[in-house]
Amino acid sequence: MGNPLDIEFDMMNRQKTTLRDLGESNTEHWLVVNVASACGFTRQYEQLQEKSTQDGITVVGFPCNQFGGQEPGTHQEICDFTSKQYNVDFPLMAKLEVKGENQHPLFTELSQSVGSDGHTGDIRWNFEKFVISKDGSVARFTSRDSPLDIV
To answer: Is the pLDDT of residue 61 over 60?
Structure first.
């Protein structure tokens, strides 16, 4: 098991990056969230944006359309929506799969962590949250957990 901060994934422009590369020099925690624009939890974008302004935290969103088809838009549509509706300026990555046969390796790694409710394994819905520390340790939170109550 490697450090999830070093697993590569695509940005919306299809360039490769890692969570560590997205962090700033003072980043102590990365808050990783699988996001969707048409979900009952979409309003959490506002809390995620607030969280992203706190020192030592880097928030990264990963759009996913695997849960109820709630993220059908293009990359540009997703960015336009989140910017207009929630003033999001934290990084949103290229759409990916967080479970199943084509699960991205980052989420394969994150899915092994035990959640705040004791769950381990597949991501169950949009807006599951993972807090990754510099040392690679992972804390997992449910869709219902407010971003403001973690880290």
So the answer is: yes
